[in-house]
Specification:
InterPro entries: UCP01500
Structural class: mainly alpha
Shape: elongated
Pfam families: DUF2270 (PF10028)
Helix content: 55-70%
Organism: Shinella yambaruensis
Radius of gyration: 26 Å
Keywords: Membrane, Transmembrane, Transmembrane helix
Number of helices: 6
Strand content: under 5%
Order of helices and strands: HHHHHH
Protein name: Membrane protein
Length: 242
């Protein structure tokens, strides 16, 4: 075999000599379906585990940086702004993983809804085309949702609450005299508005600009959390979903 010849040609013109035969009996078909279902279930569970790991990282980041920022008055409020950036990065990573997970979940749910459910409790004649979406996905795997929709779904499910916690902690940090340096701390728990704006400054960036940017960022979070369309997700087929 020439050095530049791939060991497994992908051309559809390849001869089928030596290829595994298709199932010839109902028993062989059932065995094939069972093993295929186990394989898809394993891949779905693997990607689900990756999603959970990213969520755990985000929770750990929020807890750690909250501890750093609120434990001492000398810590800068920029730590919480940095936490918002880190959580956003993890959200982007999780959205990418969710797109892969959604492909395998759709295959598993197609098998469960149209094949195994009918075996357990037949309600009508089995649709002859129920496996067509699975076959199409196997021949040409494609993502079922866009990157933005995936990010919006994860934002609505988990990350909006992490952002809310960070916002409340940041507001407390810049508005409470007990959270400021001892030199500027007073007897009152709250500061005047001009002091809050001054405390929100980030290096050369004025506090008013920082507050405006944070508010715009959270308006975008609220918008995308409410805009996400869940009609084509697993919620359309029941209340148990991932």
């Amino acid at each position: 075999m020439p050095a530049d010849t791939p060991p497994f040609p992908l051309s559809t013109e390849t001869k089928r000599t030596g290829s595994p035969a298709l199932p010839a009996t109902p028993m062989e078909t059932i065995n094939t379906m069972v093993h295929y279902y186990r394989g898809e279930l394993g891949r779905m569970a693997g990607w689900r585990d990756r999603i959970d790991r990213t969520s755990n990282w985000a929770i750990t980041v929020v807890a750690a940086l909250l501890s750093v920022s609120l434990s001492t008055p000398t810590s800068h409020h920029g730590v919480l702004l940095f936490a918002m950036l880190l959580v956003s990065l993890l959200l982007m990573i999780e959205a990418r993983r969710y797109r892969f997970f959604d492909v395998y979940r759709a295959r598993v749910r197609q098998l469960e809804r149209f094949y195994f459910a009918e075996i357990l409790n037949p309600r009508a004649a089995l649709d002859l085309d129920w496996a067509a979406p699975i076959a199409k996905s196997l021949r040409k795997p494609e993502f079922l949702i866009s990157y933005r929709d995936a990010a919006c779904r994860r934002l609505r499910r988990n990350y909006c609450w992490l952002y809310l916690i960070l916002l409340l902690a940041w507001a407390l940090k810049i508005s409470s005299s007990m959270m400021q340096r001892p030199a500027t701390a007073g007897k009152d728990m709250t500061l005047a508005f001009e002091h809050v704006v001054a405390n929100a400054a980030l290096g050369p960036v004025p506090g008013g600009v920082v507050i405006a940017l944070v508010l715009l960022f959270y308006v975008a979070i609220l918008y995308f959390s409410l805009k996400v369309d869940m009609s084509d997700s697993e919620l359309a087929h029941g209340s148990v979903h991932v």
